[in-house]
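User: Structure please.
Assistant: Input sequence and predicted structure:
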Amino acid sequence: MIDFLKSEWNKIRGASKFTVILTISVLLLMIFFLFFYPNIVRKMTLKPQGQFPGYDASAVILEKAKISADIQQLDKQLSNKVPKSFYMVINTSSNEFYLYKNTELVKRDKCSTGSYVLLKNGDNQEWMFKTPKGELKIRNKNTSPVWKKPDWAFVEEGLRVPSPNHSSRFEYGVLGDYSLSLGQGYLIHGTLYQRFLGLPVTHGCVRLNDENLELIYKKMAIGSKVFIF
C-alpha cells in the first residue's frame, strides 16, 4: 500500500492541477474505505446489550432467579424421593443392576431379565415373558427357595399341565440359595446358567450370580424399593 501511494504521488508531481486534485480525492476515498469505513459500519451494527428494542434487563434477571429457584426446588424433591437405606435399580435394556445406599453406589454388575418371548397355548392362552417395570418393592425373602412351576413351564416343555399342587410342579435348587419376591410371581433369584447373565433370557424374573444374590439378600430388607426400567 505504501509503495502504491509513493508511486501515485510521483505521478501527481508532474500532472496538471485538475489531475492533482482528482488523484488526491481518489486516494483519500481509498484510504477512507480501506481503513475507516469498516470500523464505522461495525460500530453502527453492534448495539450494546440493553439497547435492543423491547430488552428489559430487570425482567431477564428475575427470570434467571426464578429458573434457579425452580431447579433448587426440583433437586430438593428428588432428594426427598431417594431412599435413605438400600435400594436397587435394574436396567432391562443393558441387563445391569445397581445397588445403592442413598446416593452411594454399592454394587454394579450384570443380571438377566425378561426375554420378551411370546408363548401360546392354542388360541386361549398366551404368556409374554417380560420383567415388570416401575417402582416395586421387596415383599418377602426366602432361603433355599423351591420353585413352584406355573402352567407356562409345562406348556413350554410340551408337557401336560398337572393339577395345582401336583408334585411335578415343585423343583429344588434351581433358584439359588436365596429369593426375593417382587409380587405376582416375579422374583430376584439365582440361576444354574450363570454364563447367560447379561442377556435377556428369563421368563420375567431377575437373575443374579451367587455372590450378588447373597449381597442383595443381606442388604435389601422387606419393603426396600426396586426401580426397574
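Residues 1-46 form one domain.
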